[in-house]
Specification:
Number of helices: 1
Strand order of the largest sheet: 2-1-6
Largest sheet: 3 strands, antiparallel
Oligomer: single chain
Number of domains: 1
CATH class: Mainly Beta
Distance between the termini: 24 Å
CATH architecture: Roll
Helix content: 10-25%
Order of helices and strands: HEEEEEE
Shape: globular
Radius of gyration: 11 Å
Low-confidence stretches: none
CATH topology: SH3 type barrels
């Protein structure tokens, strides 16, 4: 599943993901997200937001936004 997520981010540039412990979708953008297989963490480091970390096991789903200018 994480491999597919990684590919979608690479191909599309951004996905919106749902995590168990988060009430809203999280934007995972190429260049601001680190997917660490060793620690099984997805880290989002966007300059305008605090750093967020999510465990692989809390990933529920994701989708690619229709508007690439989003």
């Amino acid at each position: 599943m994480i491999g597919h997520l990684r590919n979608d981010i690479e191909q599309h540039g951004e996905v919106h993901a749902t995590f168990e412990e988060h009430d809203e979708d999280v934007e995972l953008r190429k260049g601001t997200v680190d997917i660490c297989d060793d620690c099984q963490l997805i880290t989002v480091d966007a300059a305008s937001e605090p750093i967020e970390r999510f465990g692989y096991d809390s990933l529920v789903s994701w989708y690619m936004p229709e508007d690439r200018r989003h």
